[in-house]
Amino acid sequence: MTEELAARFRTADSTIRYWRMIGYGPRGVKVGRRVLYSLAEVEKFEAELAASSETA
Questions:
Q1: d(Cα 25, Cα 4) in Å, to the nearest integer?
Q2: Do 25 and 19 touch, CB atoms closer than 8 A?
Q3: What are 28's strand-pairing partners?
């Protein structure tokens, strides 16, 4: 859920919602009113962040 992802990245829920709006961050799936994120998608996003920080 958005709240759990925000806690994982130590940011506000609104930041996660903004990321989703601009197409940044892990891909989520909307189920009813909630947006859910699979662990695989979150870990993939984290790996991409780590790779980009190594090249920067």
A1: 14
A2: yes
A3: 37
